[in-house]
Design brief:
Length: 104
């Protein structure tokens, strides 16, 4: 699901350094999410953030710079899963629903 929501993220680098910053939640699924940040986060870093309805934890699987910032892919850890019932970002776009509507 494509979305947009500002979140405060906290991460620990593989070297054990604690960091934090603001991120834009770009997309989210049951198993992971993509965040946009001003700074890079090392691969393998443990990352977490909280929303009104849910806490998310995972590890960084990719971090790429594109013209407007660093896009960080997060794979959720063990028991962390996203559901629309627990947390719905401020702006959420369900592409499958959009395609279905266009076909009708």
């Amino acid at each position: 699901m494509l979305c947009a929501d500002m979140v405060q993220v906290h991460w620990e680098t593989p070297a054990g350094k604690a960091e934090r910053g603001m991120a834009l939640l770009e997309d989210i699924s049951v198993s992971g999410a993509c965040l946009q940040l001003e700074s890079a986060i090392p691969l393998g870093s443990e990352i977490r953030w909280e929303t009104a309805g849910q806490e998310f934890e995972g590890s960084v699987r990719y971090c790429v710079f594109r013209e407007i910032g660093h896009f960080v892919g997060v794979q959720f850890a063990g028991g962390t899963k996203w559901s629309r019932q627990a947390y719905q970002p401020q702006h959420l776009l369900d592409l499958e629903r959009l395609i279905d509507r266009a076909r009708k």
